[in-house]
Specification:
By secondary structure, this protein is an all-alpha fold. The protein contains 18 helices and 2 strands. It has a two-stranded antiparallel sheet. The radius of gyration is 39 Å and the shape is elongated. The relative contact order is 0.07.
């Protein structure tokens, strides 16, 4: 007689061993066995991991491309170990885990933040992404800009020279004609002929027109000379080539970095300051290649990455092992905006005391844009305005005094009360009313 109870017991035992074996293998399964969402894993990686890790090379921490497979092959550790490390590596090290402490020491004992807020599935998504990264994007290279049409307009200098030559020629002709006329009038003169007399009559008839034309040309030459002289020192459009191609459109526009992060003294000093290489390295210690979507016409991602290497050369930084050699080579940036020595301009006064009022008057998001133009849209910065005295005065005449500036309200309280009594509490008081047109405010 068949013993059904023994058969059931054997089936249950077999089923138990199959489940147990599958569970044990799942704990040490390679990353390919981890089910996950690569797109979500990439988003989580960029949010939580990219500051310290890259997929293909070391950064602050090890490269994470295929990390689960490497752990399995080299250390015999499964995905479960990786989950514990990500959740709370400090707790894992405190438990005496040998490899966890080895990694900690290898990477200069830099403490990795715990990510206990991540669910197991989110961690699996990250692991799945590191083992199954998307195919690299096809390199975007913008076409070289089309050759612009030849500019046939003549510069002011060429026009002035032309007018001067023409005026000289007319003077010479008039001098020669006048000599001939005088000769024909002399009794028995060599040119006392019927043809010469006709020429003399014609000259007498039209000489006023000739003089008027010469006078007009003289006025044009003088006007051109005047325009040339008042244009001296006005460098609107000046755009020098810099030692490193720094795109403000990428940094201030695409990345949204505030101007004062790099030009930190603008709020507290007379000048805005040129950032040192150390300021660049605050970000580029980790950002070693350009991976952004925006690429200027005629440029490529490789071009931007090569420019980043120039920063490393200046700082004496080796990106392969994240060390500094101590051999620095300062970047010689070319200054674009530079007031003459006889002009006093204080950035702090405009940024702090007049910042909101200037933004309102000029209709800009940042006070910097009022003078320097839309820097966040410039690939290479250029001088956007004239920076003449008339340009500054016009700004003082149209910019209202900021009576509600909390940063300076107490400091300027007495002055503001005086202005309200003088002009009326509802009056629109502009900067010219507080000495904005006084010579001594800007010239000393």
């Amino acid at each position: 007689m068949v013993n059904w109870e023994k058969i059931k017991l054997k089936h249950y035992a077999a089923l138990f061993f199959i489940v147990a074996f599958s569970w044990m293998n799942a704990q040490d399964a390679p990353a390919d066995a981890v089910s996950g969402d690569a797109a979500n894993g990439e988003a989580l990686f960029n949010q939580h991991c990219a500051a310290c890790h890259k997929l293909d090379s070391k950064l602050i921490g090890p490269a994470l491309g295929g990390v689960a497979e490497r752990l399995q092959d080299e250390q015999g550790l499964g995905v479960d170990w990786l989950r514990k490390w990500i959740k709370n590596n400090e707790e894992l090290r405190a438990s005496g885990d040998e490899y966890a402490n080895q990694v900690f020491e290898e990477y200069n004992e830099v403490v990795m933040l715990p990510f206990e807020q991540l669910s197991d599935q989110e961690i699996d998504d990250i692991i799945y992404f590191t083992s199954n990264p998307p195919a690299p994007k096809e390199e975007k290279k913008a076409a070289a800009p089309a050759t612009s049409a030849t500019d046939n307009s003549l510069p002011l200098g060429a026009l002035l020279i032309g007018f001067a030559v023409l005026a000289s020629l007319l003077v010479w002709i008039l001098f020669r004609v006048n000599t001939l006329v005088n000769l024909t009038k002399q009794e028995g003169g060599a040119l006392e002929t019927e043809q010469a007399e006709s020429f003399a009559e014609t000259f007498e008839k039209y000489k006023n027109v000739a003089y008027a034309g010469m006078g007009l040309i003289t006025l044009l030459v003088l006007y051109g000379a005047w325009q040339f002289m008042i244009g001296i020192g006005v460098d609107k459009g000046y755009q020098p080539e810099q030692p490193i191609y720094f795109s403000h459109k990428i940094h201030a526009g695409e990345q949204g970095i505030d101007c004062q992060y790099c030009h930190s003294s603008a709020k507290y000093g007379k000048v805005s300051g040129i950032p040192s290489t150390n300021v660049c390295m605050n970000c580029h210690y980790q950002i070693q290649e350009y991976t952004g979507d925006y690429i200027e016409e005629g440029k490529s991602a490789e071009f931007y990455t090569e420019e980043i290497q120039k920063i490393y050369a200046s700082a004496g930084f080796d990106p392969s092992n994240l060390t500094y050699s101590g051999e620095e080579d300062p970047i010689e940036w070319v200054r674009i905006h530079n007031m003459p020595d006889f002009v006093y301009f204080n950035h702090a006064q405009h940024v702090v005391a007049g910042g909101e009022a200037i933004k309102s008057a000029k209709g800009v998001e940042q006070v910097c844009f009022a003078c320097h133009g839309q820097v966040d849209e410039m690939d290479e910065v250029k001088m956007a305005n004239d920076f003449t005295m008339g340009w500054c005065i016009e700004c003082h005449r149209e910019t209202k005094v900021d009576m509600e500036n909390e940063y300076n309200k107490e400091y300027y309280a007495q002055l503001h009360e005086k202005l309200k009594k003088q002009y009326g509490s509802e009056a629109e008081i502009t900067v010219d009313a507080i000495g904005g047109l006084e010579c001594g405010k800007c010239h000393y």
